[in-house]
Specification:
Shape: rod-shaped
CATH class of the domain at 140-197: Mainly Beta
Strand content: 15-25%
Number of strands: 6
CATH superfamily of the domain at 140-197: Head domain of nucleotide exchange factor GrpE
């Protein structure tokens, strides 16, 4: 059952149809119909400065500054590590050189025993083992017969001359020298032979004096010298 007063409440009443003509041109007159006034757009929008862009630029500048500081600190730390490593290696080399310098007399005793053929048996094994250790530590010996004399590494205690050499040469090795890397531990004690110096020819004997010539002539003629004749008269 339908309520009274509502459209369609009466089943016999038809529904009304509403038609709205939205055409802009009148079809009868062909003229333009009055249109509703357009809404006022209002004043043009004024751009507002973006405060966030300034803040972003400031943050980017701060980040760039901090990055530069970090890179500088990293470079300084890398240089410090290199310098520390270099100083540590130098200190290690100095310590090894000092220990090797204290052991040089032991090497001298081993060399003397080797030169007298006394380095045999267990002593030879110990000497060979020491030589291997010193070689690993960088100890180098020098001073051989025939080496050119170098005052920087040779200590000359004997000088001779000979025609068999053309320059000062170490011909006698009294004690070998040693060095550790570029550091000289001890100079070699050597005898040096230098080229013989040329000697001047002896001066010729002076000519015989006139009296001597006269005496020779008198003896050849059989006459005694004047001095002998005077002695006879006396």
């Amino acid at each position: 059952m339908t309520e009274p007063g509502r459209p369609g409440s009466n089943p016999e009443e038809p529904e009304r149809v509403v038609i709205r003509d939205k055409r802009k041109i009148d079809p009868l007159t062909g003229t333009l119909r009055n249109l509703e006034p357009a809404a006022d757009p209002g004043p043009a929008a004024v751009p507002i400065p973006n405060a966030e862009s300034d803040e972003v630029a400031a943050l980017q500048a701060a980040v760039a500054e901090r990055t530069a500081d970090l890179q500088r600190v990293q470079a300084e730390y890398a240089n410090y590590r290199k310098r520390a490593d270099r100083d540590r290696l130098a200190a290690t080399d100095v310590a090894i050189s000092r220990v090797l310098a204290e052991l040089l007399p032991v090497l001298d005793d081993i060399d003397r025993a080797r030169s007298h053929d006394d380095l045999t048996g267990a002593l030879k094994a110990v000497a060979d083992h020491l030589d291997n250790i010193f070689g690993k530590l960088g100890l180098q010996s020098f001073g051989e017969v025939g080496d050119p004399f170098d005052p920087a590494i040779h200590e000359a205690v004997l000088h001779t001359e000979s025609d068999e050499v053309s320059e000062p040469t170490a011909t006698i090795i009294m004690r070998r020298g040693y060095q550790h890397g570029d550091r000289l531990l001890r100079a070699a004690m050597v005898g040096v032979t230098e080229p013989a110096t040329a000697t001047a020819d002896p001066a010729p004997a002076p000519a015989a004096e006139a009296t001597g010539d006269d005496s020779a002539e008198q003896l050849a003629d059989g006459d005694p010298p004047a001095s002998d004749a005077a002695a006879t008269e006396n």
